[in-house]
Amino acid sequence: MTLGAVVGAAFALFNTVRADQTLWDATSAALLVSNWRFAAQGTDYFHAADAVSPLQNFWSLSVEEQFYLAWPGLLVVLVLLMPVAARGRGAMRIVVGIAAGAVVAASFVWALAQTEAQPTLAYFSTLTRAWELAAGALLAAAVPLLARIPRPVGIVLGWVGLAGAVVSVLIIEPTAAGFPAPWAALPVIATSLVLAGGAAGDPRQRHLFPLTNPVSVFVGDMSYSLYLWHFPVIVFAAALLPESDQMIWIVLAAIAVLSLGSYFVVEQPLRYAPWLGARMPRVPDRSISEPVAPPAAPPVGTGPAVRAATSTRPAGWTPGTRYFPDSRRATPPAVPPVPPAASTGPAAPTGPWSPSAAHDGAAPVAVEAAPEHEAEPGRVWRERFGAQIFLATAGLLAVALATATWVHSTSGAGPLIQPPAIADPSAPAPAADPTAQLPAELAAAVTATSWPELRPSLDEVMAQSSGANPAHDCFSPTVMPDPAACTWGSADAPTHLYLVGDSTAMAYAPAFRAMAENSGGQISATTMGLYGCRFTDVLVQNDGDGIMAACPQRKEFVRALIAADQPSLLVVSNAFTLGRSTEGTDLSAQDLVTAAQAETATYGMPGRVVYLAPPPQGVNLGACYSQVSSPAACAAAVDDTWIAMWEATAAAAAASGDHAIDALPFSCWEGICPAFAGTLPTKYDQTHLTVPYAEHIAPYLTWALQSQGLIANG
User: Fold this and answer.
1) DSSP class of residue 526?
2) How far apart are CA 564 and CA 76, in angstroms?
3) Which is it for strands 487-489 and 523-529: parallel, antiparallel or unpaired?
4) How do residues 525-549 score in pLDDT, each as one tens digit?
5) What are the DSSP calls for 582-648, one per residue?
6) What are the counts of helices (DSSP H) followed by strands (DSSP E) for the chain?
7) How would you classify residue 433: left for phi > 0, otherwise alpha for psi between -120 and 50, otherwise beta?
8) Which has the closest alpha carbon to 464: 329, 344, 332, 621?
């Protein structure tokens, strides 16, 4: 139900690309492989920053179900390998414990290695998470040993485990280094201590009142529904609701209502549905644990007879049978007296008999008729859950109507990012600038209150991603670039320039291709690099698949080509975001700029290097662009990191005699960067220019290079 509801809401609210992704997320969740889907996306450079899926929380359910499918199979194989004579309960428990311990050890060691090498993959992988589930199997196998622990020690273990769980919440940051291994060991061990404490003493752990009070128990009962709904509500709220102080309370209320509704309308009724073979829950009589004295032996020679035992049960209760206060039982028929002639042996009973009566030597007696809830399960189920389903459904509809009304009443609120006061967008740019339309287009986009008809549409460019870039293979870690295929313009052009760097350079490649092809044979351009690999002399960590292995070799390959070709000009473009070295050192803006200068110095082209700034980081288009959003939701202010890196780059270029080109004139207006300009989307994600917009700014880049005397006027 949750998967269907989330997919329906996605197609009603999200953009086409994100809705399609949600459908595939739901499919993978239904097939119990969503963790592998999210792992693949997280290690894909161009999808790692995609808008978060409303079904991302299903990854852990997939890991669990995969373990629950594989673990019994492993145990069956181990049992089949055991000699038949050795398949006793104790021996099998030992085998299970050894197998669970082996899985814990192997999986944890692998998690340590993967967390260091590929943290994103380690987070989602079943192989790096199996130890957390196998720890529970190991604990179950050890229950007979744990039961021997003195009860006071068990109580202490429970409280220590609870304290460890609280500490885990306070100190562990899942996005930081060391997760899932070794940091996930803390909550796993803490939980194990709580369970071990229960095995050693009171299984109900009544002393552990923070966990065993009625409120905690109820939350635990409905925790599955709570887990299913909490994350979709958070994600949809971010797309649907405007930022406000009340948003957190609205989200919490929606989570509570949907979780309770799911629990009462779906989970409980289905759990006890008679047509699924389930049985209704029964409340046992608390007094059944009290021993009932067996009836006295009958006088010699009289034969067995029906005897009544002293009890608080109503008439019709038979000793040895369970009594449920909520059940109305028929009075069993009396057993006729046995004739004296039959005193040499018991008479054959005429109906069902009670094994407990036979156990103490009594004659078989008739057992009462089946309880009403067993005789008519459908009617009892309807009586139990009918009103519950009706009331919960009505409550859900009322909340949905109230939410829709509230959203509709607030949908006319102003933009989330208020644009600054700007000059007349139609004001002409300086006469020397041949691209006067750019500032006018950007200003109009910043002040737009509705989405214009974009060609191509945002849906189209987001779906194409980097695949539409003609230079994609020139920057791929899996394909060695072919210099001829990565070069545009006439081979005889007097000006040959190189564009190198990470994916921001790749996003500029269509602009340089257009520049070369429109130069009348005056310019040729080679565009080459590696996305995710900054052209710095420090290796900056990136979790994209294969990037770290290919980065040093690609930089060396490009360096050799430049040394052989001796181009007229070298243009370098890297991301303006902070990073961390592969050794774990945090790199500041100045560190990264200095490292870029050190790398370009090895090319031997002093005074002929141009540092082309990337566009400032934008808003995640997958999250901000939807059927209910406005252009302002996708407008972003220039971030402080970008400003710091641009200022450091410009200063370093001036000091070394090199050059720099600012990206703000074709990306933003008065510090605000829109998602489109004119009728063109500017980016297909948070970072990278679309191919049409890169081609659109080619005249500006040509003019910028000409104005600095780096290429001749055409």
Assistant:
1) E
2) 64
3) antiparallel
4) 999 999 999 999 999 999 888 999 9
5) TTS-EE-HHHHHHHHHHHHHTT--TT-EEEEPPPPP---HHHH-BTT--GGGG-EEPPHHHHHHHHH
6) 27, 12
7) beta
8) 621
